[in-house]
Amino acid sequence: LKVSDDEQWIIDTKWKLPGRFAKESDVYQMNAYSTGIKNVSKVILLYPRVSRSDHLVGYYTLLSSVGGPRPLEIKLIDLMECLSWNEFLKSFKRKRR
User: Fold this and answer.
1) What percent of the chain is helix, strand and coil (3-state, nearest 5)?
2) For the chain, N or C: smaller number of CB within 10 Å?
3) What's the predicted TM-score (pTM) here?
């Protein structure tokens, strides 16, 4: 998402259910996005919500010797909200905060 001329967000939607934490390959991919794409200020992993996934939600930090620490957010989305485009947009806007 282009937030402004100087800022971009990367949102990567995953259609799989993680276990205790995000898949290692997903985190590596988000790290690559945050270091390889200019002006990325936020990377978000978006997983489907199931009863056992709420513990994943949060703010994390990607640590690397290249470019310093970068934020990673993990969010969930209730797929039933996707049935109505307007409801989905309202929900997604609330999740941006």
Assistant:
1) 35, 35, 35
2) C
3) 0.74
